[in-house]
């Protein structure tokens, strides 16, 4: 019973630290939030904070990591169903996440790196589906197609954050899906010509 109480206390303390951190992020930039600020506002000691997090950077990395894991799981689910319409799922996660975490994770400074990490972890899971769908696609072809699609999505997400995270993303989602579909269909159609193979 004592172990359960201790676990509950740990969960509660970490929750208070995270909530306080996010509250402070609404008032100032991430770089301006200190461990002292968090401890003072959360009414905890610095020792308590450091028991769970080495720094505010570690705390933010954990929050960004949780965000990335959720996005990765949803994109994998889409591709398992051969569905390329992944942007709505990414927006779904971002819209329900704490906006302060999203702003730091996907700002101009960190955004490309954060999204690149997400897509890098998905690349090999997605490769077989795409290779099967587009006849005669080589591994190199896939790498270029994947770089093209993911760089475009990355730029769109960073711009969306920069422009204030408008909740209505339907037009962006439809436009991007249209571009992606045209790209994959054209690639599938042109691959025999690119490879120099005639079809009769």
Could you describe the 3D structure shown?
By secondary structure, the protein is mostly helical. The protein contains nine helices and no strands. The radius of gyration is 21 Å and the shape is elongated. It starts with a helix and ends in a 6-residue tail after the last helix.
Describe the structure using short key phrases.
mainly alpha; 200 residues; 0% strand
Short description:
The chain has 200 residues and is mostly helical. Helices cover 76% and strands 0% of the residues.
For the terminal residues, how far apart are their CA atoms? Answer: 75 Å
- Which residues sit in consecutive blocks of at least 5 with pLDDT less than 50? none
Instruction: Tell me the overall shape.
Output: elongated
Based on secondary structure, the structural category is mainly alpha
Query: How would you sum up the major sheet?
Result: none
Q: Helicity, in percent?
A: over 70%
Radius of gyration over all CA atoms, rounded = 21 Å
> How many helical stretches?
9
Report mean pLDDT, rounded to a whole number. 85
SS strand fraction = under 5%
Secondary-structure element order, N to C: HHHHHHHHH
Oligomer: single chain
Number of distinct beta strands:
0
